[in-house]
Each structure stands twice: as C-alpha cells, then as structure tokens.
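The passage that follows is intended for readers who have already worked through the single-chain material. We present the inputs for a multi-component assembly, then the predicted structure in tokenized form, and finally a short commentary. You are encouraged to pause after the input and sketch how you expect the pieces to fit together before reading on.
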Amino acid sequence: MPEGHTIHRLATAYREALADRPLRASSPQGPFAAQAEALAGARLTETDATGKHLFLGFRRTPRGEQRWVHIHLGLYGKVAFGQGPAPAPVGAVRLRLETPDAYADLRGPNTCTLITPAEKAAAEDRLGPDPLRADADPDRAWRAVSRSRTTVAALLMDQGVLSGVGNVYRAEVLFRQGINPHRPGRELNHPEWQAIWTDLVALMREGVRLGRIDTVRPEHTPEAMNRPPRVDDHGGEVYVYRRANQPCLLCGTPVATETHAARNFFWCPTCQPA
DNA sequence: AGCTCATGGCGAG
DNA sequence: TCGCCCTGAGCTG
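Having made your guess, compare it with the prediction:
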C-alpha cells in the first residue's frame, strides 16, 4: 500500500527494529543474494525516505564506508516485521534483515539494489520536492507546474515534479481543493497551488501518523453526517477515490472516473467544475 | 484453478 | 500508449 506516507513509516520502522546492532542480511529466495552477502558484518546506521524511495544506510565500522540499499516497493512491495528469531522464510523474500530478536522481510519490491552515496544523491536528484520532508521546496514544483500544459492530475503523479503523491492522495487533494483534474498546470494560479501543497503536507503527515489514508474532514465523517462508513480495503475514509458512480458525499452527483496512463482517477464534476 | 485488479514505474516503439 | 515486472486478495466457476 505504498504512497509516500508508507515509505516514511517504513524508514522509522526499520530504524527502530534493527538499527545499530549486529545483523544478518540474506535474500532467501531472491536475486539479491550476492548483494546481501556484501552487507555481511555491516550495521544499519540510518534510514532515509524521499517520495516513494526508501534508503537503508549501512556501515561496517562507525567511520567506515557507507552503502545504501535502495528500495522502491512499486505497486505490490511489502515489508513484514516480526519479533524474535526469524522463522523459515515464507514465499519469495527479497531481503531479510534480522537480529536475534527482530526481523524484517521485504517482498515484491520494484527495486532493491545496493548503491553508493553518490548513486543515492543521483536518485534523489531525479525527484521533485516531497511534502513529507522538512527540506522540501514547494516553489520548485510550482515552477514546473506553472509552465506545463499537462493536466494537474498527471503533474501530481509525476515524481519528478513532486514526490510521494500517489493515486489516492492525487484524487483526494484535488477534491478537497475543488480543482478539476483536467486543468492544465499553467492555468492554476499560485494560491491554488499553495493550497494543494499545504493540504498535501497536512494529509500526508496524518497518513504517516495513522498508517492509512484518511482524507474526510471532521464535519463529513460517517458520525457527523449520520451515514454508513465507507468500507474499502485500502482502509481509510475518502471522498472520491474508487467511488466511481457512487454519489458525492457533499452534493450527491455521481463520482466520475477516467483512465489515464493505466491509472484510474476519480472526481466530482459538480464540486470540481471544469 | 483461473481471472482481474491494485495506493508504481520503466523502457520500447 | 502499451507491455511488462513484482505479489496477493477477491472474485468466478
């Protein structure tokens, strides 16, 4: 379930479970075995997340050469953490990190490679500002958005423009800001962009805190509106994501959907007028 | 058992 | 824009 909030949570989870202790790295069924071998004797010293990219930092000695494991979960990747000695691995575990009393199993990632600090910097350079990072510069994204003929829906998913936003946050932030997804970036005004960015910062921080994407304002919750809760396997309360043809929570108009670049997006034609 | 779909992203054409 | 890579859940039959 990986949008940026998931990745930032994983950075913390890896650090808390495994950092600064002797550990064993292995790739029980995966093609990462040789690189896991190269981590023998190293400790996890730090973790970092930018957008949907997770970086696990290793050193053999406190001042030794640093190496990073670069992880991108893609659509299906998952990490399972456990207490105690690790059991026999189940399924295709790409990377297992374990100490005597904790372990983490990575399955199904798009990317899992061992890289140098320079390669990490290069990977980060390809990413736009991440609303979850304190060092993010939203003006960098605005410069790209305000020059582009591309739709704001596509720009929000372009990790080189801004990073960490996925299909759920994209649909939800545009709904919350009343912005039609088809509008070209260069037709947005700066206050509209500021509102999108500020809302993403708030929504994604809340996502990190809760571990799920919840975007419905307090006055629109099931309790406040005396309506049935929305049940969906992504686990949060949302306005339009995956609610095609269902009535908009605010105005009753059927939620519209379209597919672009193999991704569905959702919007309310009334609350987000063209 | 087999199909479809999913919160991603890359490279070919 | 399409096909492809990775995994798993939830259908259908």
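Commentary: Residues 73-78, 91-92, 94, 107-110, 233, 261-262 of chain A lie near DNA strand C (CB under 10 Å from a C1'). Strands of chain A lie at 24-26, 43-50, 53-59, 66-72, 78-83, 93-99, 102-107, 111-115, 256-260, 263-267. How closely did your sketch match?
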